[in-house]
Predict the 3D structure of the following.
Amino acid sequence: MQSTDSTEIVGNPFVLMMNPAEVFQAMERSERLDRLQRRICRPLDKPLIPRVESDINAYDHLIDAEPESD
């Protein structure tokens, strides 16, 4: 594979797809990325907001319970 210069990588996002190894190497050498604060974010197992049966849900259940008429 041909080696591309960094301006071509930045200017053309499709080059990133053609040579991902070079992109990873550039990321590892990046001082700016090293200075970033790292944080691990994990998805929540349970929602923080409790589900409350609302009037809209009650109305939906009433409509669903009605027999269909044609």
Notes: The two ends are 67 Å apart (CA to CA). Residues 55-65 form the longest helix (11 residues). Helices lie at 6-11, 13-18, 20-29, 31-35, 55-65. The chain has a mean pLDDT of 76.
